Amino acid sequence: MRLASVGIKLAMALAVLAAGRLGEASSLEARDDDTKYFFEAGDGDILNHYDRRFFKNQLSYDERADTLLHMVRAYLITFRKMGIETWIAHGTLLGWWWNGQMLPWDWDLDTQVSGATLDYLGDNLNYTTHNYVSEDKKVQRQYFLDVNPWAIERTRGDGNNVIDARWIDVRNGLYIDITGLSETHPDIAPGIWSCKNYHRYKTTDLYPMRESIFEGVPALIPYNYDKILVEEYQHKAMSLTHYEGHTWNATLKHWAKDPEEEKKENNKRNRLGRRQAMPDF
Ligand SMILES: *[C@@H]1O[C@H](CO)[C@@H](O)[C@H](O)[C@H]1NC(C)=O
Ligand SMILES: *[C@@H]1O[C@H](CO)[C@@H](O)[C@H](O)[C@H]1NC(C)=O
Fold first, then answer.
1. Is residue 57, in this structure, part of any structural domain at all?
2. Do 262 and 157 lie in a common domain?
3. Are residues 174 and 256 in the same domain?
4. N or C: which end of the chain has fewer CB within 10 A?
5. Which atom number of ligand 2 is nearest to the Cα of residue 251?
6. Cα-to-centroid distance, 249 and ligand 2 (Å)
7. According to the UniProt record, where is the region Disordered (predicted)?
8. pTM (2 d.p.)
9. Is residue 3 part of a domain?
C-alpha cells in the first residue's frame, strides 16, 4: 500500500517533470488560457510575433520587411480614411525619429489610440477585414482588425491582455499592436494617460499631434516625441549607430544590415528549422 502510493507519487512527479521539460510553453499557456485573448504562434522571440490563427511558417528577413511595410501603410491610410485618430509609438516611433521608416530589426509595429477611440473600434470595427492595394497597384493585401474584449478594462489586470487590438496580415499572421491610452486616475492624476503596460504620458506631451510621414504615408506623431523617446529608450537609442547587426549610414539616412548579420541569421534559421523538425527533449 505504502509502496504503491510512493510509486504513484513518483510517476506523477516524473510526469510533471516531463511536461516541464517538453516546453515551458505548455505550462505557461495552460495558465494563460483562462483570460488571454490574443494568442501567438509560440513564446519564442520569433514565433511570438505571429498571430496563431494566421501563422503558416516563419518568414525570411525580406518577407517580414515587405509584410510590415505594407501593413503599416495600409493601417495608417485606412484609419485616416475612416477619420480615426491613431499615432505611432515605441520602436515604431524610434524608427520614425531616425529616418521616417521602420527599424529593420524590429518584428513588431506599435500604434496607439485614445481609450475613446478604442471603444469605437470595439463597437464598430471589431472583426472587420480591410483590403489594401499599394500605390503602384502591384501589391494587394487584406488585414483583419481584432479588438480585445478586455479593452474596456483600462487597468493592467492580470497582465494577459495589455494589447487592446491587433491589425493582422491574414496571409501570415504578423501584426501591429494597437494599445489605448486612458486617463485612468482623473481624480488624483488628471492629464496623465496610461496604457495597460504602465507607459504614461501627459496630455501636453501627446497633443497637439504633429503631422508627418512614416514609410511614405501621412502619420501622426505625439507632440513631445523627443521626451517620450528618451524616457522610454534613453539617449543612447538616439545616438548609437550600430545596433542589432545594423549600421546607420548617415549619407543614405538608412540602417544597413551588416554582412556578418546576414550570415548569422541564416545560421539561426537553419538551427531553428532543425530544432522544430526534431524537438530537443
Ligand atoms: C470581437 O469579436 C470577437 C468575435 O466575435 C469577440 O470574441 C470579441 O469579444 C469582440 N471584441 C469586442 C471588443 O467586443
Ligand atoms: C553609405 O552608403 C554608401 C552607398 O552604399 C557608401 O558609399 C558609404 O560608404 C556608406 N557610408 C557608411 C558610413 O557606411
1. yes
2. no
3. no
4. N
5. 1
6. 6
7. 258-281
8. 0.83
9. no
